Amino acid sequence: MYFRLSITGTLFTAEKWSVNPCFHFNAALAPVWDQASGDAIVAALGALPAPPSGLLTPLGAGGRLSGFRLEGRDEDESLLGVSELDFSPGVAGTGTTSKSAQDAIVLSLRTDTPGASGRGRLYWPALGASLDTSSGKLSSPTPSTVASAAVTYLTSIQEAIEDNAGVFPFTSVLLGVRSTTQHVTRTVNRIQVGDVLDTQRRRRDALVETYASAVY
Question: What is the pLDDT of residues 48-59, one digit of tens each?
């Protein structure tokens, strides 16, 4: 079993976003899903301090973090159980909104395994990101600030899962990259952040557009 966690929120009050890290663990026994333990974990996640400013600034004032969804999944990827927490209106971002709902900063998860199966990506909303006017690249917050903030926040989530494991026989919890084809989770040992914004296409496809037209 492993955990897939969705960190969820809203952009511009209606548009939804999520980032979905995976966690695996060292266990004395093969864990099975326990609903009470899952519920305790998401309650503990909801009680965590707000993410560091390096993540709240790019989230922007038009964005909020407002929930968690914890999925227990078997090694064959089947869903074992779900625990959810919504704490709307949640935690608001702090940066000045200047980007669209499809813009994102990519948190690249790296492991010691080469190739695509050893890499993962988390698309963090970038409504409040500032770009250098001459290069068009991320200037505030800096990539190093975002990377450090991501490490701090994901580590606090990892520790909250471990500390509230309940009957799960965990000895340690580890951030991982899940290969759903090879059915293995590889441990993340670094997070990289580039200075070019990316596009979260799923958000773009979900946006409702209002059109104007002109007679030709």
Answer: 999 999 999 999
In a domain, 190, yes or no: yes
Print the domain residue range for 150.
2-196
The H or E element that residue 157 is part of is helix 143-163
DSSP H helical segments within 52-137, as ranges? 53-59
Of the CA atoms within 13 Å of residue 156, those in its CB half-sphere come to 14
User: How many domains is the chain built from?
Assistant: 1
Task: Please name the amino acid found at residue 200.
Answer: Q
Maximum Cα–Cα distance for the chain, whole Å? 71
For 106, the token pair is 């990519």
Supply the pTM of this predicted model: 0.92
Q: CA of 79: how far to CAs of 3, 23, 182, in Å? A: 10, 15, 17
- The answer as to whether 67 is a domain residue is yes
| Domain presence at residue 210 | no
Residue 182 falls within a domain, yes or no? yes
> pLDDT for 109-146, tens place per residue?
999 988 888 899 999 999 999 999 999 999 999 999 99
